[in-house]
Design goal:
The protein is of the alpha+beta class. It is built from 2 helices and 5 strands.
Length: 96
Amino acid sequence: MQMLYNSDSFAVVLFDVEGHAVAGSVVPAAGDEPLRHGGYEIVDKFARKEIFLQGAMAESFKDGVAALIETLPSEEEIDDYIERFASLMQQPVILH
């Protein structure tokens, strides 16, 4: 488990990825194999909902972030990208 992104609005955590991940980023290192196990947990802090992306959806998320990172985005631009997944979030965040 690795925290990849944490803003006032969203948090993104990487879980159990085969291959190598770049510390602090969801951008794969050169030569990395596709995401095969695990995925990304995205938490909307204001809506208090989350989603776990795996498989093709996780690959799509990773590819979108990789393209976004090339533009040196602001925090607001990253949050805007992550917000695209907000309509899929159905799981409420429950604290123990």
